[in-house]
Amino acid sequence: MAVVAPERRAWGATALLNVTHIDAPAPPGAAAGDLLVFVVNAGDPSATTVTAPGGVTEVMGRNAFGTRIGYIFATECTGPSQVVRFELSDPTPVHVATMAIRTTSDPAALTVGTIWERSGSSNQIKAPAVTVTEPGALVLGVLFEASNASEKETDVAWSGLDRWFFSRQTAGPETVAVHYVDNAAAGLTSEVNATYLNASSIGMGVQLIIPAAPGGATPPPSAAYAMISGQQHNALRIGGKTSDAPTVYAVARPVGGGAPVTTPPVVPAPSGWVSVKVTGLDAGRTYDVDLVSTGQVLATARGETFGLSPEPFKVVTGSCQANNSDPAVFDQMATDGAAFFHHQGDLHYRDTQDESTWRAGVDIAFSTPRMRSFIAGTPVYYRWDNHDWGGSVTYRDSPIGAIAPPAIRELFGNDFPHSKALYQSWTHRGIRFVDTDQWTLRDQAVTTPETDNLTGKSMWGAEQRAWFFQTLLDSTEPLIVWFSSFPLYSNLIGGGRWGNYRHEVSIIQAFFDEHPEIRSRLVAVGGDSHSVCADDGGNAMWGIPSLNASPFSQAGGLTSGVWNIANLDVDDSRGYYSRLSFDYTATDVEFTWEAVQDDGTVMADWTNAYPIDWSDEAPPFPDLTPEVTVWNGTTEREARITVWDGAAEVTVAAVESAP
Ligand SMILES: [Fe+2]
To answer: d(Cα 453, Cα 506) in Å, to the nearest integer?
Structure first.
């Protein structure tokens, strides 16, 4: 097995003036098991010392250079939210540059070479070459400098090793620059030489060796996040982002006990994204599903298979999550115990058609602490909107159309009825859900000359539109919830929304005019507008109730058009979502929509009852949860038949008749 070289993953920096302690967070993108390396550059007013907390290794001890001191520390990262506090013996400016490196190397295995220092009136700083004994090491050339506040990366010329980053002071009068050689050959590295335009009179440099993984070991497999998706009545998927996992499999363990179901192994995509489908499960039952690689559980996610019996349940949905945010709204949504969560797009605001940037946006959104925790306990549906698809001017033939559709299937599986678009439909406990895709198949929205009334112009594509109509025609459920993404604006706004596709709007209008029995059973729940806006169908397009609450984390504003339930300009600093509740009585299903703020406050709500005609169909049958049960006409009873096999009690048969 080949030696795996340590890999540079991420860096970040913190600087403060005149403090006696400084908190250095793990840089965004760091993961548990990474090596964190801290370069501390501080003032030296009075034989100042820097002390690290327990468990943090001092790799390079105090080194004074002129009026400054430098240290290097390292520790194993415990997780992305880790913060390490360094104490200073005197109030002084301090700058900590933190690097995350994926490696199995122990902090104690790091070594530094000869330390170079300069005082005097030159602006040259160097880090002397070091000798690498084991090939495959990562070598970092670290330059410490006391400079003036206008120092910029472009003011610094260097040679010797490639530059990883130049961290300019934001408060303290220090900079830290780091150079590197990946997968170093055995032998002497190059010296780093740098010329600072605005340097003051002192500086220091040293090279640091992070050895190749010991004994040729590979890093252990890990998962940055995992979630249940693709719920069916007898199947679940677990999807996630893995690293260093050659194969993974899933184990679904029924909550409350029962036999686990294990899948064959599958190979994650080169990106690390994977979706494992577990089949042969019971309807309406909750499972803890482990994602496993090389015998290690990488992550566990909980979710329920879809149920057949008409019992109460909840659904949560919304949209619009700013880059690098981890909004509190996910903690609130986790308390609802929803059957599933539908993220209706703007998972990130990268507006990019570059594949690696787009994938990074997805990974950062799902792996931030609150969302990662929320999706580990609530199954996820996801369909993009403009910002996480490629930007508002993109359409069917844009570059993102070749990138995002196959990529997202690595993470969510490929049970969609279309090969590229994300539209789909499912039922849970007697309610029909329909999700439409507004971006993957669209014609260009905004054109010169304007084409808003052009015959044949389509947002959905003819195939999706036919599927939508047929799905509604085939639906026998008393209530159909359509995840519409856009609010159904009474004033038919453009900007990529339905106002740019007026011929298609008229086709949909004709369908609902012909089928009032469908319209009366349909509600549209969306987001996108960064506001709470709701209408009972009196004003909304097509006469359909349109119920919308967003954003998770974005600036908001009042929505245009007429809304007869609510139209609220929400607080820019808070998050909002829709909570849908379904409650059965003997004669109807009562549907409640609530717009919920991230502290649990209900900002708006609407309730409507949908009659059920049981005579049309078989009476509801319960979801039998244990492996062996009987239904006696009123209640479900456990009725296990077991034998003693000499070592354990073993269930051998089901009971076929009611007692
Ligand atoms: Fe948005």
So the answer is: 10
For residue 64, how far is its CA from the centre of ligand 1 (angstroms)? 51
Rounded to whole angstroms, the Cα distance separating 111 from 59 reads 7
> pLDDT digits over 466-522, tens only?
999 999 999 999 999 999 999 999 999 999 999 999 999 999 999 999 999 999 999
d(CA 612, CA 587): 5
Q: What is the DSSP string of 103-157?
A: ----GGG-EE---EEEESS--EEEE---EESSTTEEEEEEEEEEE-TT--GGGEE
Task: For the chain, give the mean pLDDT.
Answer: 91
Question: Measured in angstroms, how far is the CA atom of residue 366 from the centroid of ligand 1?
Answer: 17
pTM above 0.85, yes or no: no
- C-alpha 321/C-alpha 548 separation (Å) is 15
Q: What does the pLDDT look like over 58-90, one tens digit per residue?
A: 999 999 998 899 999 999 999 888 999 999 999
Q: Where are the beta strands (DSSP E) in 211-284?
A: 222-229, 235-243, 249-254, 261-262, 273-279
- What is the token pair recorded at 223? 């998962």
- In the chain, the domains with their CATH numbers are 7-216 (no CATH), 231-303 (2.60.40.10), 313-613 (3.60.21.70), 626-653 (no CATH)
- Cα dihedral: 340, 345, 349, 352 (round 10): 120
Q: Which residues surround ligand 1, an ion (CB under 5 A)?
A: 320, 346
Q: How far is the CA of 429 from the centre of ligand 1 (A)?
A: 31
Backbone angles phi, psi at 341, to 5 degrees: -120, 130
Is residue 330 helix, strand or coil?
helix
pLDDT digits (tens, 9 = 90+) for 176-202: 999 999 989 889 999 999 998 877 778
The residue written with tokens 């054109």 in the block is: 447
Distance (angstroms) between ligand 1 centre and the Cα of 530 equals 6
pLDDT of residue 6: 87
What is the distance of C-alpha 512 from the center of its chain? 37
**Cα–ligand 1 centroid distance for 579 (angstroms):** 18
Per DSSP, the residues of 403-469 read HHHHHHHHHH-S--SSSS---EEEEETTEEEEE--SSTTPPPSS-SS--TT-TT--SS-HHHHHHHH
Residue 457: both structure tokens together: 């112009």
